Amino acid sequence: MALEPETVSLEAVPTLTEAQRHLEVLARNHALTKTFMVPDGSRIIFNTPEKLAGLNQLSLEMDEPLRQIAKEHDAQLAKLAEPPFENSRMAVASVLAPAG
Q1: Please, which of 8, 36, 59, 64 could form a disulfide with 45 given CB 3.0 to 4.6 Å?
Q2: What is the DSSP letter of 4?
């Protein structure tokens, strides 16, 4: 079940943005992901192909809301089917930045 952009509150957007960024790093770098241990150090957290696949799926499900929110606030990104994540995060951050 993917998050729908219209259900994401403005207060949750920074958390969504950071979660998407971290998940993207982990999903793209399984070598790094496989180094994460449980707190007591007894095993690797992502120790099965199914857990890595679940991580990848969660990462993908966080991508679309971020892109949609960015498209709503940036006319140039709205023209792209899949805006780059860094550009999407910057567009969202600019909306959330205090006016000054």
Answers
A1: 36
A2: P
